[in-house]
Amino acid sequence: MKMGTMKQLLLLTDGCSNTGEDPAMMAAFARRRGITVNVIGIVDGNGTDPGLAEIEAIAKAGGGESRIVQAAALSETVVNVTRQAMTGTIYSIINEELRGILNKEANVESLPPATRSEIAEKVEDISEEAALELLVLTDMSASMKLKLPAVKEALYDLSMSMQSRIGPSSFSLWTFPGKYSAAEERIGWTNDAGKLAESFPQLLSGGITPTGPAIRQALSSFMEMSEYDEKSI
Amino acid sequence: MKNRYEASPGEQIKGKWTGHVWRVEREIGRGANGIVYLVRGSAGRAALKFADSASVASETNALTALERVRGASPGPFFIEADDLEKEGAVYPFFLMEFIDGPMLHTFIKGKKEEWAIILLIWLLTFLESLHRLGHVMGDLKPENFIVVSRKAIRAVDVGGMTKFGRSIKEYTALYDRAAWQAGTRRAEPAYDLFGAAVLTVSLLHKQTVQRVLGNIDDLKSIVQSSPALQLIEPVLFNAFAGKYESASAMKRDLLLCFAKTKTRTRTGRQKRKTFWAGKWFVLAGALAAILMLFLLN
Ligand SMILES: Nc1ncnc2c1ncn2[C@@H]1O[C@H](COP(=O)(O)OP(=O)(O)OP(=O)(O)O)[C@@H](O)[C@H]1O
Ligand SMILES: [Mg+2]
Prior knowledge:
Chain A has helices spanning 23-32, 52-61, 74-101, 113-129, 148-163, 194-198, 211-232; strands at 6-13, 35-43, 63-70, 132-139, 169-176, 184-190. By secondary structure, chain A is an alpha/beta fold. In chain A, strand 4 (132-139), helix 5 and strand 5 (169-176) form a beta-alpha-beta unit. Chain B is elongated. Chain A binds chain B through residues 75-76, 83, 87, 91, 108-109, 112-114, 116-117, 119-121, 123-124, 128, 157, 160-166, and chain B through 17, 53-54, 56-58, 60-61, 64, 80-83, 90, 92, 94, 165-169, 173, 178-179, 184-187.
């Protein structure tokens, strides 16, 4: 199997978008473009947040993973979600191929366990060695105030794992809302994962939460990246 | 986790692929990835772990890799993987040898603090054989190890086992080199040796270690203020600094260090006359240390 670049968008938010287009719709759009959208919802202790349904809907539409966590568990979750998002992307490609060969319902889980183990080994190799583009999109609206230190720490943790990857990796950091637009690029594509945490801004940007428009804008960054790739070939 | 299967004691679990039936005796433990049950099949007792399909597949691979170690495997023997089909849903699981015994932190409860050093020696023996296969353990929390017989420890959760050179698959922050800002998360022997050193300290001072997580200087102070750990302070500090390239090197140092402190206390301020005399003291001390290990048993 040949593997192209794994394109992952990781959205960190506390939910409750309140302006602009539906974020789940934007996630679906991303998915059609080969970009997986993963969401981590950061909640306060008091259980039932209204934003939870939205978080799941975004990840579902974006073909990615979603988790709801408290700020304290963020580091671990960011690393795991990113890892699972990568293997998930590879599995979905395999499943698609299986459907082509076998039948419409076939997937890896319908194969015997021994075959699954062989596939798992290959998937691990690929997810370690394939090229990765990871864009982190962070909600910096007012409600995130107390969570920012945890976000910074989680980004540091993520960079520690990403720096140990074998395959070529690029990272980019966006935050929303932006000063003049829905979202703002904080760090352009770089191979240095360390920059994610180092340059993480500690200042909030404002009250509105334009999650949908922010996703749309961040996506443009992937597009530019692939245009750039094409030109350089 | 999504669709975890909860079994109850007495329940029969029938594998879809093999047709084998396993009777659940009790739950052994659960974690972030799965639930483990003690079960009985036609061939006797076994541990059965329900987890998602990808974890089952990758843990199966890890367990089979471990079996390449000669003699006793450092982990549970892999028996088979299968699926349980229930009301249209599929729950993957696998069976492995049930390893009976206390986990590291349970084992050390109520024992002399010096036992932490002996556990470290056993842990290094375990790591030696694992590293020889080109894998690191990754997740060095005490719940993942079981003291078997009175001479060795074996791993029960191999979810963090990672090939050299890759990024660690699973870890617990407390024992993670990167979380202490003391290096990367790349799989190499020194990663496990760092974790082993922290594990040793936290077996005795879990709460304090937890409180200073991320600050290696505070961690060092804990070592310096603990009478038992002082004995092996240089070795722990070397491991914190990533100075050991292999588990054997760390183990050798540990035995020597343990020995030296013993001879020093025994011979008082007596001076070493020649280099060789010094060497002999060390050797004699090493013997004393080994003897101690047996005595403590
Ligand atoms: N083969 C075994 N023999 C005896 N005990 C076992 C065995 N496998 C697992 N256990 C027990 O069950 C507990 C949970 O299992 P395990 O650690 O594999 O689950 P997990 O979901 O992978 O956990 P974690 O969150 O640590 O990754 C372990 O701490 C251990 O005590
Ligand atoms: Mg595990």
